[in-house]
Write a structure and sequence with these properties.
Keywords: Coiled coil, DNA-binding, Transcription, Transcription regulation. GO terms for molecular function: DNA-binding transcription factor activity; sequence-specific DNA binding. This is Helix-turn-helix transcriptional regulator. By secondary structure, the chain is of the alpha+beta class. It folds into two domains: about 220 residues, Jelly Rolls; about 110 residues, Homeodomain-like (Arc Repressor Mutant, subunit A, Orthogonal Bundle). About 45% of the residues lie in helices and about 25% in strands. It has twelve helices and 13 strands. An eight-stranded antiparallel sheet has the order 2-3-4-5-12-7-10-13, sandwiched between helices. The chain has a five-stranded mixed sheet with strand order 1-6-11-8-9, covered by helices on one side. The termini are far apart.
Length: about 350
């Protein structure tokens, strides 16, 4: 087993230590760091960025060649870690002798140590791991101010009554967070725009994790329902299929057959992931694509209709107006007038 110690409280120092331990090349673009690995120890990448408000975002997409332990110590800081596992699994303990808790695919986890114990992460060999870690610096001082903000609220939530007891929460599986993580990876903008988009999505992920925690603590209806990990993977694959083939004639029966899932489970999963039924989601994807075509191409309305998989122009006009409060022709005309009015 390989053990790596990270004794740092900054993103830059962390990536330098990761490079010293695992090799590879560290690239920096704006405030974002990326370590690429392809050697005897590991294959994959680690990305990270420090954001405003004491928030840091680190994403692992790695396959280790041997069981690997990552021991993280942040001197003089006691961050709260929000973890989400998109693929594979990892375990966590406070210190080497602490109890291990495992985080599996699609599960959320919240880790806090007010006493400043080391956080130890355990990665399995030959298993692709995709995990996101968001750390938030929380202070007692922030919780005592009138405008406590995010740090103070988190301190009150997870460090109740000044307790020095470590806190670990392994939550229900959550498909909405998986979608947000994929949106982060799909950001194509650079520089400040990318940073702002990433920060916005990180805040959404934090909100979803805290919401999941609140619901689980209150013992409300489990959001996972009867979905298994295999079924959730099938739902994500079906969602990706719709994004890639929105112009095809897609039916629920076809998706169920192709991805080996029952109609009820498919609908349950789409409601968890997208907040709507399969049919509604397909329609939303098509209308969104149509809006892009109307704005950015010279296609006429009929060409747009057929390019997104619809056969009825009147039906398309009806649902487009429901989404954008104007007809497709009015929308396209407005796009033409924008450069003139500018």
């Amino acid at each position: 087993m390989k053990t790596t110690n990270l004794n740092t409280s900054t993103i830059e120092a962390m990536f330098n230590q990761l490079k010293n331990n695992f090799g590879g090349n560290v690239e920096k673009e704006s405030k974002e760091y990326r370590l690429e690995l392809d050697n005897d120890m590991a294959v994959g990448s680690i990305q990270g960025i420090a954001l405003a408000g004491g928030i840091a975002y680190v994403d692992f997409d790695m396959t280790f060649s041997e069981n690997t332990t990552l021991l993280i110590n942040t001197p003089n800081k006691n961050p709260i870690y929000f973890a989400y596992c998109s693929a594979g699994s990892m375990a966590h303990s406070f210190g080497n002798a602490g109890e291990k808790n495992e985080l599996n695919s699609f599960q959320t986890g919240i880790i806090a140590s007010p006493s400043g114990d080391d956080n130890v992460l355990y990665f399995k060999k030959d298993e692709r791991l995709k995990v996101t870690l968001i750390s938030v610096q929380s202070t007692k001082q922030a919780s005592n101010t009138k405008k406590e903000g995010l740090k103070g609220k988190l301190y009150k939530t997870f460090f109740k009554d000044g307790s020095l007891k470590n806190y670990v929460y392994i939550g229900s599986q959550n498909l909405k967070i998986a979608e947000k993580v994929e949106q982060i990876k799909a950001i194509k903008q650079e520089g400040l725009v990318k940073t702002l988009l990433l920060q916005g999505l990180v805040h959404v992920i934090l909100a979803l994790e805290i919401e999941q925690h609140t619901e689980d603590v209150k013992n409300t209806e489990n959001q996972l329902g009867g979905l298994t990990t295999r079924e959730m993977k099938a739902i994500r694959a079906a969602s990706a299929h719709i994004e890639a083939h929105f112009d095809d004639q897609i039916s629920i029966a076809q998706l169920c057959s192709e991805f080996s899932i029952s109609p009820s489970k498919l609908q349950e999963g789409f409601k968890l992931m997208h907040g709507r039924t399969v049919t509604d989601h397909l329609r939303t994807v098509r209308v969104t694509k149509a809006e892009d075509y109307l704005k950015n191409t010279d296609m006429n309305i009929s060409e747009v209709v057929y390019s997104i998989g619809f056969s009825s122009r009147s039906y398309f006009s009806k649902i487009f107006k429901e989404s954008y409060n104007c007809s497709p022709s009015e929308y396209k005309m407005a796009q033409r007038e924008l450069p003139i009015s500018a």
